[in-house]
Amino acid sequence: MIAVCGPHEADQDERRLAEAVGRLLAEAGETLVCGGRGGVMAAASRGAKLAGGTTIGILPGYDPAAANEWTDHPIPTGLGEARNAVVVASGAAVIAIGGGFGTLSEIALALKLGKRVVTLGGWTLDPQRVTRLSRGGAALLVARDPAEAVRLALGAARQPGHG
Amino acid sequence: MIAVCGPHEADQDERRLAEAVGRLLAEAGETLVCGGRGGVMAAASRGAKLAGGTTIGILPGYDPAAANEWTDHPIPTGLGEARNAVVVASGAAVIAIGGGFGTLSEIALALKLGKRVVTLGGWTLDPQRVTRLSRGGAALLVARDPAEAVRLALGAARQPGHG
Amino acid sequence: MIAVCGPHEADQDERRLAEAVGRLLAEAGETLVCGGRGGVMAAASRGAKLAGGTTIGILPGYDPAAANEWTDHPIPTGLGEARNAVVVASGAAVIAIGGGFGTLSEIALALKLGKRVVTLGGWTLDPQRVTRLSRGGAALLVARDPAEAVRLALGAARQPGHG
Amino acid sequence: MIAVCGPHEADQDERRLAEAVGRLLAEAGETLVCGGRGGVMAAASRGAKLAGGTTIGILPGYDPAAANEWTDHPIPTGLGEARNAVVVASGAAVIAIGGGFGTLSEIALALKLGKRVVTLGGWTLDPQRVTRLSRGGAALLVARDPAEAVRLALGAARQPGHG
To answer: Where does the pLDDT of residue D161 fall: very low under 50, low under 70, confident under 90, or very high at 90 and above?
Structure first.
């Protein structure tokens, strides 16, 4: 299972990248987990569903109807922003597309949990600081396009003991 | 999606009831969500999978490998006991089988969230107090067997606006 | 630190009991932690403050102004009902006064975490089942009045290694 | 109440800055909330306590004894990394000193919640992106020394409706 993170308010480029990422993950046989809402999350879920994949949305509130229409399994948590920690904990690796503050928190929480994070647009962080801090499987990689993002994420997910 | 709650340490009777509940939920086309671990959770997930259903396990820790082998989608949360609130928030209704203190917390949290809870063995609570406190769709119903438990749970889940 | 649990909507008797419990905890030099809202929570906090004690309120939402006026330190969590797990985790022992479903969830979560729980009115649970399930320091004790409730709670809190 | 964030593993410079921040917050009459552990958290709490202040530590695990010795009120949550969301939700403003991935997640979560964040060393983020994304009272300010950090944080905390 791969987590895809990105903002609820996304521009057309970000949505296009997210849809391609979702499609490629589904084609690779991976389940997609995300925050279940609009923007990047809806576009990635749409891409996955149109390619026959499976999608899970970890929602901040209690209403499953707040999930986007491409979510197979809405998980309403009621946890507010703390649900971001659950989204990234659920992925063997994380792909972050574009991004607001919520996305940045997910990048940081995933790195803290020792996950590989692949960014496609959006936040850039001081690479030396990131490398110095990384423990376990933590790594922050920059992808140039959706295919590279998915390839890098799957590389982490399919190493033994990735969890 | 229906949540099934019950203890990690369960006796043979509880596991048998849980497996039947899982099977009947799958035959009714419902996804099963539970705490993802052993005992009642594993037995219900096994029943669902053997009948071709889908299972989600919301885990207390960060290791997806802690999920039982019948879990399609492990959701490692790292939330400890607070993950119980996520399990019940994810179900349109809750079936509680047997039960320890964790199960009792899930019954209570589900009722607090206005969900219908069906018990099959295990905890009994003062019915007058429960009725007086119930708001929204909250109700605590006692089932005599797995078929009745699933029928009562589906009755809640398929009412409009159950979420 | 002792946790006091009870409903936001409480009758006069419950509020009177809660205020006495808060006062006695403060006189014993204990900090009071609770859910920070009205009813039993406000009455217990008022009792503690009028006796010179310290109070902490673990709130379900993000607004510190939702805390009752007797709360020294509001902790807004945004966690919704999952904050109940934090309230009981914060107490060396728990006193539950009266109670709705939220209170019942706190009793159950505290017992699951191995804490001593003292009830004053409210929920009663099958004592044999509770005893059979109890691990570590978990125990459910019934107090007849505020003085006994505080005495029993302090007995747990002041044993070595109670945490 | 002001939140102070920073890594458990901190160098001498970071600890010196943190202790000065803690002292200045206490002298200004503010309660300090942090993650309750070592490094920056312990140094800030030490500074606050030596100046007569009050300290609260929101811990990731269940053991209150994991709090540093300068913590008046340990809040064991059992929430793992999700406790970072509670730390920043509890502060009217946030001061981040040095920092690892956990600190970065706290900066991001605080900005998402509309808080003012003051950094003292550590992470730098693209200021244009931050400004474009900021809603409500969210702002990311860079302080040159502890006195400026505290002054900027108090400026946010003492505006009406800061919560």
So the answer is: very low
Residue C3 touches partner D, C-beta closer than 8 Å: no
Q: pLDDT for B101-141, tens place per residue?
A: 999 999 999 999 999 999 999 999 999 999 999 999 999 99
Q: CA B139 to CA B73: how far, in whole Å? A: 29
Answer yes or no: pTM beyond 0.80. yes
Q: What CA–CA distance (Å, rounded) separates B34 from B86?
A: 10
Interior/surface letters A44-66, b for 16+ CB within 10 angstroms, e for the rest: bbbbbbeeebbbbbbbbbbebeb
Q: Is D143 helix (H, G, I), strand (E, B) or coil?
A: coil
- pLDDT band at residue D159 under the 50/70/90 scheme: low
Helices C101-112, B101-112: axis angle to 10 degrees equals: 160
Count of residues making up chain A? 163
Does D145 contact chain C (CB < 8 Å)? no
Q: Can you spell out the DSSP letters for chain D?
A: -EEEE--SS--HHHHHHHHHHHHHHHHTTPPEEE--SSTHHHHHHHHHHHTT--EEEEESSS-GGGS-TT-SEEEE---GGGHHHHHHHT-SEEEEES--HHHHHHHHHHHHTT-EEEEESS----HHHHHHH--TT-EEEE-SSHHHHHHHHHHHHTSTT--
Give Cα C93 distance to the centre of its chain.
Answer: 8
C113: closest chain D residue by CA: D62
Closest Cβ–Cβ partner in B79, B82, B108 for C101 = B108
D82–chain A Cβ distance below 8 A for any pair: yes
Contacts of B77 (CB under 8 A, 6+ apart): A85, A86, A89, A90, B58, B59, B60, B61, B62, B83, B86, D80, D82
Average pLDDT over residues A136-145: 96
What is residue C64's DSSP assignment?
G
| Cα angle for residues D77, D79, D83 (degrees, 5° grid) | 80
CA contacts within 13 A on the Cβ side of D134: 18
Residue type, D74: P
- Other Cβ atoms closer than 10 A to D159: 12
User: Residue A161 pLDDT more than 70?
Assistant: no
Question: Would you state the structure tokens that stand for residue B29, as one six-digit string?
Answer: 């086309």
pLDDT of residue B161: 44
State percent of chain D over pLDDT 70: 96
**Residue D162 confidence class, pLDDT cut points 50, 70, 90:** very low
- Backbone CA torsion sign across D14, D18, D19, D24: positive
pLDDT tens for each residue of A66-111: 999 999 999 999 999 999 999 999 999 999 999 899 999 999 999 9
Q: How far is B77 from chain D (nearest CA, A)?
A: 9
Share of chain D above pLDDT 90, in %: 94
How many pairs of residues across A and C have Cβ atoms under 8 Å apart? 20
Q: Does A63 touch chain C (CB under 8 A)?
A: no
What are D60-83's pLDDT values in tens digits?
999 999 999 999 999 999 999 999
Query: What pLDDT was estimated at residue C99?
Result: 85
Q: How far apart are CA B7 and CA B9, in angstroms?
A: 5
B148 to chain C, minimum CA–CA distance in Å?
Answer: 24
pLDDT score recorded for residue A159: 61
Q: Which residues in chain C touch residue B101, judged by CB atoms under 8 angstroms apart?
A: 108-109, 111-112, 133, 138
| Phi–psi pair at B87, nearest 5 degrees | -55, -50
**What's the token pair of residue A73?**
């399994």
